[in-house]
Design brief:
Blueprint: H1 18-42, H2 48-81, H3 88-117, H4 121-135, H5 140-153, H6 156-162, H7 166-181
């Protein structure tokens, strides 16, 4: 009885997936950085509420694009190196690694943006959000609590802590990408 990860009869089952992981990880990471830049720069003139919804929309687009591009990366590896067949387990590993590479690139860009490129970004967003919550009627204690929470969200420690969650998100999207890209040999 064969397992799901049995060797593929066509192609080279031992072909390295690292060139595909790096190539597609960099592509997705750059797309993520561009979307982040659009969100940060484009959000400067928006009201905090509109900016929040824009951020959620761009985040959703980013997740969908990551899944689509990771699937394309696995399929490129499958078609080029494995003769068109790839078991689910190997497809998952390739998709997962592509997404980890891309997430690390996006996270490093995020960190560079708020610490080097535009170090006032966090303070500006906190100030604008504080003004907005004051306009909607929150009292001073609620405004202070909200402001403190936002400052924590933009802190270096919080940004580094987000890196801990990268593998979890990569695994979830990787499962979907692997399911879409797998192609087992026909059963005889």
């Amino acid at each position: 009885m064969e397992t799901l990860d049995s060797t593929v009869p066509k192609g080279n089952p031992n072909a390295s997936y690292w060139p595909y992981v790096v190539r597609w990880g960099v592509i997705i990471g750059v797309v993520g950085a561009v979307l982040t830049m659009v969100m940060y720069v484009g959000g400067n003139g928006l009201s905090p509420m509109v900016w929040t919804f824009t951020t959620m929309g761009i985040g959703l687009v980013s997740v969908i694009l990551s899944g689509i591009l990771a699937t394309r990366g696995v399929r490129a590896y499958r078609e080029t190196e494995l003769g068109g067949l790839i078991p689910f387990g190997k497809a998952f590993v390739v998709a997962f690694l592509i997404l980890v590479v891309s997430s690390l690139i996006s996270s490093v860009f995020n960190l560079l943006y708020i610490t080097v490129i535009d170090p006032d970004f966090a303070n500006n967003m906190v100030s604008r959000m504080s003004d907005w919550v004051a306009e909607v009627g929150m009292d001073e204690a609620q405004i202070e609590a909200q402001t403190e929470q936002m400052r924590k969200n933009f802190s270096l420690n919080r940004q580094l802590l987000n890196l801990v969650f990268v593998p979890v998100g990569a695994a979830l999207i990787g499962l979907i990408a692997a399911a879409a890209a797998k192609r087992n040999p026909p059963v005889e």
